[in-house]
Amino acid sequence: MDIQDLAQRLQNAERRALARAITLVESSRADHRALAAELLEILRGGERREALRIGLSGTPGVGKSTFIESFGKFLTGQGKRVAVLAVDPSSTRSGGSILGDKTRMELLSRDPMAFIRPSPSQAHLGGVARRSRESVALCEAAGYDVVIVETVGVGQSETMVEGMTDLFILLLAPGGGDELQGVKRGIMEMADIILVNKADGDLKPAAMRTVADYAGALRLLRKRAQDPADFPKVLPVSALAEEGIARAWEEMRSLADWRVANGHQASRRGAQARAWFEDEVRQALLARLTEDPHLRDLMRESAEQVAAGHLSPVGAAGTILAHL
Amino acid sequence: MDIQDLAQRLQNAERRALARAITLVESSRADHRALAAELLEILRGGERREALRIGLSGTPGVGKSTFIESFGKFLTGQGKRVAVLAVDPSSTRSGGSILGDKTRMELLSRDPMAFIRPSPSQAHLGGVARRSRESVALCEAAGYDVVIVETVGVGQSETMVEGMTDLFILLLAPGGGDELQGVKRGIMEMADIILVNKADGDLKPAAMRTVADYAGALRLLRKRAQDPADFPKVLPVSALAEEGIARAWEEMRSLADWRVANGHQASRRGAQARAWFEDEVRQALLARLTEDPHLRDLMRESAEQVAAGHLSPVGAAGTILAHL
């Protein structure tokens, strides 16, 4: 694989090159990992490009795909290039998304200004975090203006997505409250902006009440000292009727600009890079246990001996560690 | 420290020796870790003793301490020696339990047949899992017949406790339902026996309704193939009035005996030992990153460089790993 060529084509915004690069960073093969690291280094040396990275969370049923389609088309209509990455470790059980994200966002996926990447099937959260952070970096290097990292709003993946984005947006449906919608309190507290979708037709009054309820609730949650006083905000949107989308974007942009101007975005990205580094060291260290065939055999044999009661867990572990 | 002597006194059921041994396994100091491993090896070589290990989960307010007091006194009254270990990683924020578990279980703590160990303040779940598994092994070696591992019913600690016990008991309060009581569905699914506490006085009718509701709900959950058809069971108890305790114990004993007779307990313990071994290897490997002062400095300096944008996360991680 010619990594220099791949880097060049990616920087020239070739979508196929970006897709190929993401496939490379998603691979857990040692030779692919080395190529991926090389690619990321080359891209770091290139022109400095920075996207606005938006984490978007919402449980199934709130209309997340419709919102991304509507929001994405709005952005490309403004001349912005938009990448959508899906992060859903829970879908690993079914081996990735069933229908594929592209069929969920038909218009956007045909838009040359947009790039949509479905969830991969990945074994564990650590692996998903690693490939997602690298995929975000690839989208940035490819010159995308906005990178949306989408997640399902029910698991641990939100903390991970917050750790790789500049803004965190929570999409809710009208009525019911976050508990009934299965949204955890911790996720509520992460949100910079809550969008109450389906504010159209019969559901509009319920949506407006939900907006008012959450605006009240958010005032009770601890404020983040570094944000303007009127954030986090709650806004109604209708992905279907394409209403409130411009306003939502304006608020996202305004908060992001404020954070950039006050140095908060830079310090957040610095802290994120530090956490990425530390996680990378830990993951790579643990990967040594499974990469080396000799060690893998030794681990397996020791595990059998331990399970059969012939060796103690701690004693057998000590033997393995003496080998390393 | 004379480890042979400590082992001897522990096997002679000296409570002070057991307390001291647990303090040793709780320590994260490298020399203490080595002594702890030595102690565990000596004890493994001794007389084979096996306790019934019971995981007990319940959110604050269900009367868990009163239940353990009542249940523990019942067991010691039957001539059994009982150890109670508390596992509560969430209490780490306040630096361990505030009042101390012994004041919560006043009668049991004065019983010479019982041993109660309060939660330690521990930094992370991995550390808590390690010391808890080792503490359970120490209690077994000290000849306790029943080891109760208590947890708070709201976090990840339940999976950990299930991974080191033979039976998992969930304590609920009457009415409200598990969601209102903050019990996660995953925890419901782990339970071998659900006890609805406070089945006394005014609350008795509500407790009996709760028993019936959960009996119905459990029939809808997937059954474990290896258990008798009438498990998981739901039973009423009153820790305060000391009612239903004997019945609860009878059911626990009957399920445990059934599993022993069918080889399920042995295979479960084998799988648990295997998981312990694998976790031990991973934790010890990661501990190397912080134990070596030179490496720790290198990690810190690299992290600063990464945060400042002078190094890439993946590149800096590669440099660290080349050092190892």
Automatic annotation (TrEMBL), chains A, B:
Domain of life according to the entry: Bacteria
Example of a GO cellular component annotation carried by this entry: cytoplasm
Every AAA+ ATPase domain range: 50-222
Leader sequence segment: none
InterPro entries tied to this protein: AAA+_ATPase (IPR003593), GTPase_ArgK (IPR005129), P-loop_NTPase (IPR027417)
Gene Ontology molecular function terms on file: GTP binding; GTPase activity
Transmembrane segments: none
Family: Belongs to the SIMIBI class G3E GTPase family. ArgK/MeaB subfamily.
Record protein name field: Methylmalonyl Co-A mutase-associated GTPase MeaB
Gene behind the chain: meaB
